[in-house]
Fold this protein.
Amino acid sequence: MSMLTPPGMGGRYRITGDKYPRMRPSRRRGRLAVLAVACVAVLGVIGWGTLQLIGVFTGGGNKAKAAGTKAGCPAGASPSPSARALPEPGGITVNVLNATTRSGLAKQTAEELKKRGFRIGDVGNAPKKYDKKVKGTGVLLGPTASLNTSLPVLSAQLPAADRRTDATRKGGTVDLIIGDGFKALAKKADADKALARLTEPQPTPTGGEKSC
């Protein structure tokens, strides 16, 4: 009898030889392992999809910050166009001069400009250089520095007037010289809209420094 045969067992139940019987691995365990791997894969896909949805609904904040940093701006900031700086009507003094043969135009126009916030200087007839020589709506005249400051603001009140500058002129006062084609100032609502457009942010020039 072999040493592997338990006592009291013999015959066909006798175990002979010097090797243990081989045990096959359970098929159930293999199926459980495959199922576990599949579950992990599915959870991974769901998690990735959730992150993508969060990025869509939050506007991709991380990407925006990265873009701002690459553009030379602090994280969280984005390049923005610069607003045009123009004086307020209350900071502009206007001489209202009549170059036509119609009386009372300078006074009426000056009163309306005052209601719209402008400061009024001289009111009267135009100098000989312009008297009865302005065929259009009018002329807006000021020093060189007023070309991109005071004159555009005043022009919103009389868009059809010509803008001119005089390099020899001193101070910041500008003239509104009324011409033969003058009928009235622009409607206040239209003038306000024109002023609003003037102060809207302007695009950054190509090749220039970007602002944040």
